[in-house]
Design brief:
Elements (H helix, E strand, L loop, with lengths): L1 E6 L11 H4 L4 H15 L2 E6 L3 H11 L5 E5 L8 H10 L3 E5 L21 E4 L4 H13 L13
Parallel strand pairs: 1-2, 1-3, 3-4, 4-5
Helix pairs in contact: 2-5, 3-4
């Protein structure tokens, strides 16, 4: 089984960004931890980061046919990435949205996710551990018949 992990804009500078919000782990450290956890669960983890919405969409479209689920931290695209949302919906896979910080305890504009209505669930405010939790959840749920390809991201 393969799970895609997608990181949106500015997540490439984790570890350097405001550590009080995003923690001290770098993106490379998070991805490494997810690959290790995936190996323990018998899951191939493929990670991708871009600051460009089109590149994220291209990745979803090219990789989702071989995947069982998607973990996404859309970054700022959480609030306005309509074409990314469409690509995730079209993938027909279970999706879990992850945010390192608690987006509901931040500025008003960050509290609205246009991605949330099309995902199976959202994990917000648990730092890098949110990714680990999402991987464990998908490892279990992606195997269920209702969560496989054609589940329309829910």
């Amino acid at each position: 089984m393969k799970i895609l992990v997608i990181h949106g804009p500015n997540l490439n500078v984790l570890g350097k960004r405001d550590q009080s919000l995003y923690g001290s782990k770098s993106l490379a450290e998070i991805d490494s931890m997810l690959r290790e956890q995936g190996a323990e669960l018998g899951i191939e983890v493929t990670s991708f980061q871009s600051n460009h919405e089109g590149a994220l969409i291209d990745f979803v479209q090219s990789e989702s046919p071989q995947a069982a689920g998607i973990i996404i931290n859309p970054g700022a695209l959480t609030h306005y990435g309509l074409s990314l949302r469409d690509a995730l919906t079209d993938a027909g896979l279970p999706v879990i949205e992850v945010h390192l910080s608690n987006i509901y305890a931040r500025e008003e504009f960050r509290r609205k996710s246009i991605i949330a209505p099309i995902v199976r669930g959202q994990i917000s405010g648990l730092g890098w551990q949110g990714y680990a939790a999402a991987l464990r959840i998908l490892a279990t749920q992606a195997c269920s018949p209702a969560a496989g390809p054609g589940a329309k991201g829910r």
